[in-house]
From TrEMBL:
Official protein name in the record: trypsin
Gene that this polypeptide is encoded by: LOC108877312
GO cellular component: extracellular region
Domain Peptidase S1: 9-215
Lineage: Eukaryota, Metazoa, Chordata, Craniata, Vertebrata
Classification via PROSITE patterns: TRYPSIN_DOM, TRYPSIN_HIS
Main localization, broad class: secreted
EC number(s) given by UniProt: 3.4.21.4
Reaction equations catalysed: Preferential cleavage: Arg-|-Xaa, Lys-|-Xaa
Enzymatic class: hydrolase
PANTHER family: KALLIKREIN-RELATED, SERINE PROTEASE 57
Length: 217
């Protein structure tokens, strides 16, 4: 496991996280994700829904009509075959077409190997900015510093000491060294409660599965 210290939630600079995707149902954000290919978004398996997601990229504010905004539809989902409601909480979504890569819409690389001690990471999302179902108006981020190495290289999760993400952030990234190292899985029962740490799905444990899905689709 990787423990981390959490700092203050801040507004992301507009379009500074161009890999971010908002997964929406009937215009309302439900989960986050990241672009890993022009036609694929990486998110959490617990974000799976029976309806088609509208996938919004290239925006800072979800309420505005930004010129950089692109909307697509998720036409097929690939939850990890061993997802059991808790473990292996990772999913890929195939889009109906390729996004147009611009300054505001970019892909993110997958993190390889372990996360080193004292690595500066961040979590990004449009989720609840408190414990009161108030969604963020613009993209938010919080800095994370890892404090210890995983107890086992086979542990497919990353833990953070204090809750940094909230409702609506599920499926979003833990970004370390400019690459996505984790997928937001679940958080503590209360925002900022160090007794109930955040849990991310560790990307490096699923690189082969991700590569297989992308190569075959």
């Amino acid at each position: 496991e990787t423990m981390a210290d959490i700092f203050i939630l801040i507004d992301s600079a507009p379009h500074s996280r161009p890999y971010m995707a908002s997964l929406q149902i009937q215009g309302r954000p439900n989960c986050g994700g990241v672009l890993v290919r022009e036609d694929f978004v990486l998110t959490a398996a617990h974000c799976a829904v029976p309806l088609q997601y509208t996938v919004v990229v290239g925006v800072n504010s979800l309420s505005g009509n930004e010129a950089t905004k692109q909307e697509l539809t998720a036409v097929r989902s690939f939850p990890h075959p061993n997802y059991d409601g808790h473990a292996n909480d990772i999913m890929l979504l195939k889009l109906n077409s390729k996004v147009q890569l611009t300054e505001a819409v970019q892909l993110i690389a997958l993190k390889t190997g372990r996360i080193n001690v004292a690595t500066q990471c961040l979590t990004v999302g449009w989720g609840d900015i408190g414990d009161n179902n108030t969604l963020a108006r613009t993209l938010q981020e919080v800095n994370v510093t890892t404090l210890s190495q995983p107890a086992s290289a086979r542990t497919p999760t990353v833990k953070c000491l204090v809750s940094s993400f909230l409702k609506g952030d599920s499926g979003g990234p833990l970004v370390c060294d400019g690459a996505t190292a984790g997928v937001v899985s679940f958080s503590g029962r209360k925002c900022g409660d160090s007794k109930t740490p955040d849990v991310y799905t560790r990307i490096s444990s699923f690189r082969e599965w991700i590569r297989s899905v992308l190569n075959n689709n």
